[in-house]
Amino acid sequence: MKRRGSPVVLFALCLGLLSCLISALPLEASDIIHRRLSLFEVRDLLRTEGYQTDLDAGNDVCHFKMMGYSVQMFVADGGESIQFHCGWADTDATLRSVNAWNEGMRFSRAYIDSDGDPHLELDLDLAGGVTRARVIDFLTTCRISLERFVKEVL
After folding, report:
1. Is residue 43, in this structure, part of any structural domain at all?
2. In the structure, how many helices (H) and strands (E) does the chain have?
3. What is the distance of C-alpha 45 from the center of its chain?
4. How does DSSP classify residue 57?
5. Residue of 80, 60, 62 whose CA lies nearest to 71
6. How do residues 11-38 score in pLDDT, each as one tens digit?
């Protein structure tokens, strides 16, 4: 009787072959890991999500409107992080309402500046690598935070 080989060995060989085939497939653009983003890449991503942007390359910032509010996306730390920012003047925001916001939120922070005006900020660290889908999810988090901040703080 002729023996063909152990089923475990055959399974391991098939698994190894399958792994090689999968790793040879091209990556989708959304699967690419970004460890840095340039100001122009941020602008392009915002545009693909439907935002009209104005660049201030000297300050590494994209200006755009979200929900009718003027907001900014800063590229910082040599492209290893991006920061969403929105500020207001002449509102009813108080230190108490801003502190309540900070106490209840995990992914954003707010503050009152020296003129008494409220600001909302969110950061995304890219240093460990993120996908395009994660950056888009960050934009969604920014929009949700902005909407809630306007309702709860302003």
Report:
1. yes
2. 4, 6
3. 11
4. G
5. 62
6. 555 445 445 444 444 445 557 899 999 9
Question: Can you give the CATH number for the domain in which 64 is found?
Answer: 3.30.1460.10
In a domain, 19, yes or no: no
110/120 Cα distance (integer angstroms): 4
> What distance in Å separates the CA atoms of residue 137 and residue 53, rounded to the nearest whole number?
19
| DSSP single-letter state for residue 62 | E
Q: What long-range pairs does 46-52 form, CB within 8 A, spacing at least 24? A: 46/73, 46/139, 49/136, 49/139
126 belongs to a structural domain = yes
Handedness of CA 29, 121, 55, 49 (dihedral sign): positive
Give the total residue count for the chain. Answer: 154
The Cα–Cα gap between 51 and 54 comes to 10
CA distance from start to end of the chain: 83
Report the number of distinct structural domains present in the chain: 1
- pLDDT (tens digit per residue) in 77-102: 999 999 999 999 999 999 999 999 99
Q: For residues 53 and 64, is the Cβ–Cβ distance under 8 A?
A: yes
